[in-house]
Amino acid sequence: MVEVISTHIKDVWDAWNIRGMVILSLSIQTILIVLAPLRKRTRNSFLVIVLWLSYLLADWSANFAIGLIAKNQGKELKPEDPPQDQKLMALWAPFLLLHLGGPDTITAYSLADNALWHRHFLGLGLQAISGAYVVIQSLPNTLWVIILLLFIAGTCKYLERTIALYLASSDKFRGSILKVSDEARSLEKGEDSMQEYDRQQRPLELEKHDGDLTHLEILQFAFWFFNNFKSLMVNNIFTSEQSDESREFFSRLKHEEALRILELELGFIYEGLYTKASVLHTWIGAATRTITIGSLLSAFCIFHYRPKKSHEFHGADIVITYTLFLVGIALDLRSLLVFMTSEWTFAVFSRLNEGEADDETDDESESGSWIDPQLNWFLGFKRLQWKKEKCCKGVEHEVLNTPFLLQRWAGSIKLFNFISYSMNADTERIHGAKGRRRRCVRKAILLPFIYTINIFKEACKRIAVWNHKLHQYIGDVTNNWPMFIIVIVEFWFRIPHFFKSTGNYITSILGISDLDRTIPKRFVHSEPLTKELWVNIFTQLQCKLQHPDRQDISKTQAVRRGWASGNTDLEMAKLEGLMRYIADVDYDRSLLLWHIATELCYQEEASTLENHKDREFSKIISDYMMYLLINQPKLMSEVAGIGMIRFRDTLAEAEKFFRRRHIENLRDVKAASDEILSISIEFDPRDFKGNKSKSVLFEAAALAKELKRVKMDRGEVHEWRMVSKVWMELLFHAACNSDATARMEQLRKGGELINFVWLAMAHLGLGDQLASSTKETPEPKWM
């Protein structure tokens, strides 16, 4: 009988299956520890896939290795095996329990993993039983002391992960919010625990001095907002007193100070949801971490000074054991260093000056503040760094240029342009951001791969054409050929289609089909956040505070669906031609309509010193909102409506129009814009296209011509200022009504500008989170 698997391969597998799986588990832990902190700084798809695979394989490899070790304990030793070799493999079981505890930098890949804390708690018990079973099988074992120490360390590590998932789950999270609210009400009644609460929730009253905030003060304020406004993460509400306090503080902040506080607060939210930070900064975390490191070091010392190891154990197994010890200790020491230098630790060990305190408290504050200058100096390395860059029009801007390892988020904005996509044209960057050298090096490295992929795609297209022609030829001239020849030909030419269909099916089953974006990557590009853009956004939000009915702005917009006006100073009531594009317009239709019209005006009108700022703001926000609508449908689900249907219909109409004008192969956005604007529209496009088509292409052309009339009547500067304010209103409405779950999910994907806008609006009292103190807290909407 023919053997499918040779005896040699079986022998190799029997000899190295346990060793290989243990090394694989250790390698995966190293990958997670090194790469997991990077995911909040970048949106790189390759990193996302690597982390996703590593996160899933981590538990599988450790569980599989423990099963192999348990099975191996019952085998008889071969004559050439060392006498105590199986006993040493039993020592590896608690190491795998350590691996199941996972690194500090990632406990959950997504928010859905936090809801599975019950499963991890059950897994803790099952893995502990499995490890104990392996140890019992190996008895009598002279390594029992080392095994016991490692077993204690592994249990503590797994317990940390389970508690972190529990604390980040929606039920526990809401419970902690209600607990804090109850404490606050008790304190308002003047209970004696005021001083203790003061230490935990510092400061009770937000006070900003006239000068610039230091790096440490910015960190402390961000940590205070994180602790006191956690309800924002689950679309919860907070009292009018909290809103007034927050609004008063943020209204006095400078633009860059507000941005730094917001990015730190979002960073704390990320660590609370996806890492062990919320556990490690408690007495339970301190105890478990002390026990873990102490047990691991003690076990290593006992093993290292054990005599005659080379006679008792296999040489390769000794090397693997040392590797497990040394790499495990190194990774734990690295985690300890990261913990001690984390911003969460700095916030816990520092105190804000609270203004009103007695002499004794002042003395304690002075004696306890000796470390504050050192913390402030260290935090200075992670400050926002700006770099002056000239955009494509020669105008100089300050763009965010913080070094990658010091970033707290991606610091860039993804843009997508409809007309560029419909014309299959390359996108034009506005800023030469993130350094031309880095892009050149990246292109030099990736160019061979990109070239190979393009060749492969072109070959697939040609094969498809040849396949079609071959089918026609076979159908015409081979009617009398044997059927098996046709079947063979069909089989070989269907192989590529089979693999493609199989891949699509697997990705849909695994739930990772969203890793491939709806729009090809070459049509989506990044622009760095400019200081001028953030200043404009935050200034517009501060101006809204002056409106007497600011709390009712969102409700008023929702009732009359006037997304683009929103009680601002746009003066659109005097422009009758524009009102039909504002009043009674669905949000998704308004967004696509204004996006195309903005691009048409942008391509037609040249940039000047007077209109450049508003013109560029309009272009960036317009393309950014289109990116969110098309590529982030979950984030925009609350406001998107039938946006994808409108997009497809408009795209089909645009492609049809370009074919009629014979410009489909030009790949020139300027030429396409000129052709669209050249249409003579003497009637309302909505009157003849019917209800089946949701296209807004020609409505956008009509809107662009109305904007040109504004330019002729009031000047080009007024036109672009008005358009930029329209886009600010569209951005604010989307930020206020974006999906809470998707907002939190974006934190693990590099972050989004809309997260900053949403959080700023909430702190300024411009969102829908305000409620009376007696209103019941609604159920969380995420997880």
TrEMBL record:
Membrane-spanning residues: 20-38, 45-70, 90-112, 142-159, 313-331
Residues in DUF4220 domain copies: 52-421
Pfam families to which the protein is assigned, alphabetical: DUF4220, DUF594
Keyword list, A-Z: Membrane, Transmembrane, Transmembrane helix
Coiled coil location: none
Name of the featured protein: DUF4220 domain-containing protein
Alphabetical list of InterPro entries matching this protein: DUF4220, DUF594
The keyword tRNA processing is annotated on this UniProt entry: no
